[in-house]
Amino acid sequence: MPELTMVEALNLALKQEMEKDDRVMVLGEDVGVDGGVFRVTDGLIDAFGKERVMDTPLAEGVIVGASLGMAAYGLRPVCEMQFSGFSYFAMHQVEGHVSRLRWRSQGRYTVPMVIRMPYGAGVHALEHHSESKEIYYAHTPGLKMVIPSSPRNARALLVSAIRDPDPVVFFEPKLIYRAFREEVPEEEETFPLGKSRILREGNDLTLIAYGAMLHRTLEAAARLSEEEGVEAEVIDLVTIHPLDDKLFTESARKTGRIVIVHEAHRSFGPAGEIMARLIEKSFFYLEAPIQRVTGFDVIVPFFAREQDYLPTVPRILAAARQALSA
Amino acid sequence: MPRKEIKLDHSIEHLSILDENGRLDQDLMPDLSKEQLLRFHRGMLLARRFDERLLLLQRQGHIGTFAPVKGQEAAQIGAVANLKAEDWMLPAFREIAAILWRGTLPSALIIFNAGYNEGGKIPQQQRDFPNAVPVASQLPHGVGIAYGIKYRKKQEVVLTFFGDGATSEGDFHEALNFAAVFEVPAVFICQNNHWAISVPREKQTKSKTLAQKALAYGIPGIQVDGNDVLAVYAATQEAVERARSGGGPTLIECVTYRLTMHTTVDDPTKYRQEEEVKIWEKRDPLPRFQKFLQEAGHLSEKDIDDLEKEIKEHLDTEWSEAQQQMEKMGNPLDMFEHVYAQLPPYLQEQKEAFSQFIEAQKEADHA
Ligand SMILES: Cc1ncc(C[n+]2csc(CCOP(=O)(O)OP(=O)(O)O)c2C)c(N)n1
């Protein structure tokens, strides 16, 4: 099994799906000759030609809107927003049409498309290149919203997203695009959308995270075990919408103590919804107030301060201790 | 390094075939049979009468807000009459004439306007898109479909309708640009009806014509008398043929007029002069075409009376059909349909909880 970065794993997913299915198309800004600014689509234009790997004009609205047309026509477009911070130019297409066409046409037209975009802070980028606004998409009925956390998982998820009959917004945590390698099997792997996964079992505490913040959370869990003998269960949320609340509400029943970690802003953020479901479904099992470690409700600062904005291992540990002490 | 001129060989053609008095320019007359001409007439008259019926139903409280088509029938029928069944038609929100022409039943439109999504269901064989309410947002979809057609090497064409106001939106520009760059088989039909709600065309853009916007994208653009069904037909025919034979997109500006309100909640007397409306009433596409057909000996007074009667009966039947269908549409749980291919568990839970609540409520009411 080759060891791949997340970028390479995503590239593998696209390449293999395009080989298998001539309906799969890739389009976006600089995705062709340049291979995408993060190289996720590297080499695809050589393998599949410019008809299937389209360097589009610089216009997010029509990239998403035209993808909808292609999807309704029977193709499987995978479009790229160069950065999630520029996807708002296409937000009206996503909210107004992509998410609704199945419903509006009463099932006559469906929109099997994927909107990929790098997101998140931590790579010293310019303004508008560091946001984590998954909630915009998670709040929109008709869409699915997924976020991988490792190369292998990213590849499997992207394959599932491409094959999904509904539109999928696919956030790629750019902080871990190349941060580490992982063995990724050559043969096909999928991961069901709408499912979370347990990465570490434990009885004392449940830590819920996803994307790049999952790795800080895993590190915190390891330290809790080594330094304090506390065994935390760690859940990778994977799909932000629809939420797999079964997994985390069951875990809460086992541990009674919860910490939720994400880099998105706190107010009305994903953690808020997770807490609501925990209260609805596992309230009587909770032994301590639920803790959340999140980005602050401020504009994501320029890179000199972005590490202070992001949840850190010490912040996660502090929240865990708070949950354990109550 | 002096300032130089870059020579651009640009001008905009204006096409008109049938004037306000029903007089024809024989040389420009497209090749159309009597049957085709009479079909155009029926299409326009049906749209006119159905539009009036919808307004009545709206005023009586049977249906909700809608955007009347009165005055724009020629622009819609002239354009859409060029499409084959396998071609694609993307309306904005005022395309009542075009939608009926393509085969949607008046009953479906009534149901839709009465607030039931089911009315928006498009039959499997029909390649029309549902109404798009966000202005200009349907244009990108059209170019995507057209790209699919080109990719699959099919002979189909996409025709997209929109208004003059839509040409100010980013989506209009993005779509035309994209369509031009990829040379897709798309025909853009702008119905310049002179008003975008209360804003006149002159305040929408400084461009002298809307057709000239095509020049910026390097595609053909033409302005036609949009109240002249023959001119619209001829210009669209050229554009459709060009698209079908790989010649890429075209922008057609149909100069027309919205004779009534923007939508049924709008009062046009607030922002436009009655005199202007009077001028355009004289240019009404329907009587002009009738005059032409009568003078050509294709249509008699009696034919018109018979057709009026037939249309009235047809609309009566469709209205009762719509009422019957709507009686079966009371289940609020239907709102959970068609959101996803498969209802996700959390949504299934919401649906079940709501269902139980409704049942309990019913029992309580009966107790
Ligand atoms: C993106 C967007 N902004 C605003 C509106 C509200 N609105 C509905 S129709 C309309 C005017 C449209 O004018 P035009 O494109 O000329 O079409 P017409 O109504 O004249 O047929 C406006 C502003 C809308 N539907 N969509």
TrEMBL record, chain A:
Named cofactor requirement(s): thiamine diphosphate
Keyword Oxidoreductase: yes
Keyword Oxidoreductase in record: yes
Cross-referenced InterPro entries: THDP-binding, Transketo_C/PFOR_II, Transketolase-like_Pyr-bd, Transketolase_C
GO molecular function, one term: oxidoreductase activity
UniProt cross-references to CDD domains, sorted A to Z: TPP_PYR_E1-PDHc-beta_like
Gene3D superfamilies referenced in this protein's UniProt entry, alphabetically: 3.40.50.920, 3.40.50.970
Coiled coil region boundaries: none
UniProt xrefs under Pfam families: Transket_pyr (PF02779), Transketolase_C (PF02780)
UniProt entry keywords in alphabetical sequence: Oxidoreductase, Thiamine pyrophosphate
Record-annotated Transketolase-like pyrimidine-binding domain positions: 4-179
PANTHER family registered for this protein in UniProt: PYRUVATE DEHYDROGENASE E1 COMPONENT BETA SUBUNIT (PTHR43257), PYRUVATE DEHYDROGENASE E1 COMPONENT SUBUNIT BETA (PTHR43257:SF2)
Function: The branched-chain alpha-keto dehydrogenase complex catalyzes the overall conversion of alpha-keto acids to acyl-CoA and CO(2). It contains multiple copies of three enzymatic components: branched-chain alpha-keto acid decarboxylase (E1), lipoamide acyltransferase (E2) and lipoamide dehydrogenase (E3).
Name used for this protein in its record: 2-oxoisovalerate dehydrogenase subunit beta
Species: Nitrosococcus halophilus (strain Nc4)
UniProtKB/TrEMBL annotation, chain B:
Coiled coil: none
InterPro entries the UniProt entry points to: Alpha-ketoacid_DH_E1_comp, DH_E1, PdhA/BkdA, THDP-binding
Keywords: Oxidoreductase, Pyruvate, Thiamine pyrophosphate
E.C. number(s) listed in UniProt: 1.2.4.1
Annotated ranges, domain Dehydrogenase E1 component: 43-326
Task performed by this protein: The pyruvate dehydrogenase complex catalyzes the overall conversion of pyruvate to acetyl-CoA and CO(2). It contains multiple copies of three enzymatic components: pyruvate dehydrogenase (E1), dihydrolipoamide acetyltransferase (E2) and lipoamide dehydrogenase (E3).
Record protein name field: Pyruvate dehydrogenase E1 component subunit alpha
Higher taxonomy: Bacteria, Pseudomonadati, Pseudomonadota, Gammaproteobacteria, Chromatiales
